[in-house]
Amino acid sequence: MNKLLETVCGLLSGTALFAIMALTFFDVGGRKLMSQSIPGSFELTELLMVVVIFGAIPLVSMRGEHVVFDSLDSLLPAGLRRVQGIIVHALIGAALVALGYLMFKTGQQFAINGDNTAQLKIDKAPFIYGMGVLSAVTGLVHFALMFNPAPELAEGEGAAL
Amino acid sequence: MIEALIGFVAIFALALLRMPLAFSMGLVGIVGIGLTRGWDPAFASTAQVVHETGFAYTLSVIPLFILMGNFVARAGLAHELFAAAYAFIGHFRGGLAHATVAACAGFGAICGSSIATAATMSKVAYPSMKKLGYSDSLATGVMAAGGTLGIMIPPSTIMVIYGIITETNIGKLFAAGVIPGILTALLMMGAIVYMTSKDPEHAPAGKRSTWSERWAALRGIWGVVLLVFVVLGGIYGGLFTATEGAGFGAAGAFLFALARRRLTWKILFQVLVESARTTAMLFTLLIAATIFANFVNFTTMPNDLKEWITHLGLSPVLIITAMMFIYIVLGTVMEELTMVLLTIPLFFPIVTALGFDPVWFGVLIVMIVQIGLISPPVGMNLFVINTLLPKVGLSNIFKGCWPFVLVMIFVLGLLIAFPQLSLWLPSLMK
Fold it and tell me: How much is the ipTM here?
């Protein structure tokens, strides 16, 4: 299950990120050097950003890479930390499933209004549904983490600074 | 005012209970808006923040700079940078330590991460220093401190984040970091001169390179120079926006890694997914911070704080100095990204109300993060080096980093006293 999620989400977000890079490179290069840009590159980047971010969130949760204040960890007994983990992940899981529902509702609203991008007329609703589904999937990941916590990260792994 | 204060306390309480910061801020923000404004507006504004932050062209600058840094780290350019720096300054006493600082500064110009810079350099510089008999504390202290140059010398992840949450021009922030970054590097070298004069046998000079060796070493870094020139030169010269520069830089770094045969399909996939994960982690934080900031802005807190500060009648510089003092203390125990995201909604309105330049304050914040990253007991750079070089031991690393913490606090003082150090370069931009 973990492997499947890693492959699917990795492919989704990784490919989208590579596409943003290539798109920006050719768009800017074309615009500056040959005064020719790629039509709709802005909005394509926006849609791809959604895929990068929401495609990778389940992976961040699965690997426990969210920023956590862990300075108290050494002070707490292991049993208490386990209980703490169960409560925290249950809360986050519920919040994310609720967020998934909220985004799904928002997506329905977009579908009814027929919202699409300005230039290429791509429907936005499927992307918002995607946000909803992937938020809910991340919520499920947290439910799974309640009893199988993520392995300890190496220092600096996944850090952004 | 009271509602917002309760909000801050609730975030701290949840964070202490090990709730990831993003979820603490997001939940408190939603509940806060729900209780003060009603639940329908709370859910509607949450959905809006989530989808607007997702669909934002300008924010693609974040993954692109992260990707550029990750490609550069894989391309193996650090070896050449170190060799070039060593060819020029290796013959001084403590030459390898000087070369490490210089190479970190150079690497910082293509990578926006302090941790990546320190980690990359420790693989390149430590073996050479060990071979020449450098003490472990000096070697690791230099690498940890030099690594932090990665976030002051542009590009810089933390500057991008600061720019986004405070709506400050990222190109100007980048320009503002150049002189403070170089100044910090030079003063670190000064500290190395002082330390090695007391303990010369632990930091012997290397042999002097001939000019032909130096030119050969310089030829090895043309790729880095070209990338810096195109990306940062393009942003400063007004040819690119920061986002466009980041896209160009990431593609350039990708082509370098490809040309140097450092990329297999597997490594490419790893680099892409790793960058996407860091992006997702940051965006979760950004979304949550925006939801929370929306809540705080609904309350009277920002105005109350401004009034309170003006009523105090203290000199503005004194207030800034007090803020920096709080930051230095917080930075010893807190993770720096958390610290910045939590405090900016409080401090930033005060700073602008006092009439200070947001670009200047951004540079101070970066310096504070640099200090926090290497100040014990909780300093991410120190932990990273400890993981990579487990035999050295944390106490040795702690011992080695103190002189550099003091150097950086001194630079922070200079930056507060002379805002021109940060603001002169951005003032030249179009």
Answer: 0.93
The contacts of residue B225 (CB under 8 Å, 6+ apart) are: none
Distance from CA of B274 to the nearest CA of A (A): 7
Confidence of residue A126 (pLDDT cuts 50, 70, 90): very high
**pLDDT tens digits, B189-219:** 999 999 988 888 778 888 889 999 999 888 8
Q: How far apart are CA A143 and CA A158, in angstroms?
A: 21
pTM over 0.90: no
Cα distance between residue B159 and residue B242, in whole Å: 11
Reading phi first (left if > 0) and then psi (alpha if -120 to 50, else beta), residue B22 is in alpha
Q: With contact defined as beta carbons under 8 Å apart, do B152 and B181 qualify?
A: yes
Q: Least CA distance to A56: which residue of chain B?
A: B277
Kindly list the residues from chain B whose CB atom is less than 8 angstroms away from the CB atom of residue A86: none
Helix ranges (DSSP H) in B38-169: 39-54, 61-75, 77-89, 95-108, 114-131, 136-147, 149-152, 157-166
Nearest to B277 among A45, A60, A105 (CB): A60
Q: Do B46 and A92 touch (CB under 8 A)?
A: no
